[in-house]
Amino acid sequence: VGGRPVRDIRLDFPAFATAGDARPTAYLDSAATAQRPTAVLDAERDFLEHHVAAVHRGASAATGDSTTRFEAARADVARFVGAGEREIVWAQNATDALNMVALGIADASAGIGGADAARFALQPGDEIVLTEAEHHANLLPWQRVAQRTGARIVPVRVDEHGCWSVDDVAAVLTERTRIVAFAEVSNVTGQIAPVAEVAALAHRHGALVVLDACQSVPHRPVDFAGYGVDFAAFSGHKMLGPNGIGVLYGRDELLDSLPPARTGGSTITKVTMEEARFLPAPHRFEAGTQAVSQAVGLGAAVHYLEAIGIDAVAAHEEAFAERVVAGVSAIPGVRVVGPQVGERRGGLVSVAVDGVHAHDVGQFLDEAGLIVRVGHHCAQPLHRALGITATTRASAHVYTTADEADRFVDAMGEVRGFFGLGRKVS
Ligand code: PMP
After folding, report:
1. Catalytic residues
2. DSSP letter string, 283-305
3. Where do the Aminotransferase class V domain residues begin and end (predicted)?
4. Phi/psi-derived region of residue 3, left when phi > 0, alpha when psi is between -120 and 50, beta in every other case
5. Are residues 241 and 316 in the same domain?
6. Which DSSP letter does residue 226 get?
7. Ligand 1 geometric centre to CA of 373 (Å)
8. Per-residue pLDDT, 57
9. Relative to the CA of 378, which ligand 1 atom is closest?
10. pTM over 0.80, yes/no
11. Is this complex scored with an ipTM above 0.90?
């Protein structure tokens, strides 16, 4: 990957220090949360050991140093996603970031934020367009907005594989469409959305575009400014970074007028007993003491991914998915969800096994030394649309090997036989 053999890259990760094991456990659940390289752990530890002081508060050299490191991490993240520093707001994770947008819009609809925020206000009957494939993190916050404003959720239906197209979005847009929200890469199907095309289409209808970039930023090159999206969200823990830190991206000209979902210290210019005036973005959204060492760790994760090259990471993971899809598609009674053989997808593959519940598949794989994700992957409407209750997902990151892909395929070849179905493979 990026000129380095995977076995060399694995040495960067303490989690894979299993030199003595003949057959180490295969970690195939990076789409849920990724392993962390030593560089990230060291960056956090170094900050905590030598650089702790209140950020953006006080006038000492020590606070200046901690603030510089905190803001340098923001600049690293901004560069990585094609954004300006002012456009990067720290959040806890993608879920938190999506809630910040949704709650800001709900507040604006209730008159909070005054005339500046009126551009975000929804009226009863306005429409929020979401695909059926969305993660609950990009669905439930919009349900709350709909409940508070009287707006309506309009679904973009998926096909029999769980995929949707620009035409499917175009078909549901109306003059009432105010928001179009979707994931760049689905955490279940692995479909890669045509982000710039959808954004341009939505903007022609005067809608805001919200991108769930949780499964794209950690795995492939993104360019939020180039896409033309209005907001985007992603998590640190899926991109080799720490837990407890995520990012809300907002277009510069929008962020200063979106009401902050949380208010409190560090967000204001002037406070009286009755009211407050807020700082410009990003600080107006960062109420209270922030996850500083985690932000610094995320900056280190960006440096790590940049050193390998995010294009190389994407190519490596797409090769993993291609190998798994090709292998699994040849197994009777095992169905690949999402793009099929020969179609492009991100580095994850979900499958449904005829006659065997995903939880039983998961247990079988666990005994075979494979860590995967089973269940509805926080995407119940998608599974309902596909007529299945649960799937089994294998997902990759920079440290995943071709051998691990093959082990997953081999195990899937045996699972139905193990449960007494189909042709038994001994
Ligand atoms: N969106 C997608 C597409 C995801 O895969 C996930 C994580 N499974 C999330 C949102 C939520 O991320 P987090 O739990 O880190 O907030």
Report:
1. 378
2. GGG--SS--HHHHHHHHHHHHHH
3. 27-408
4. left
5. no
6. H
7. 13
8. 76
9. 8
10. yes
11. yes
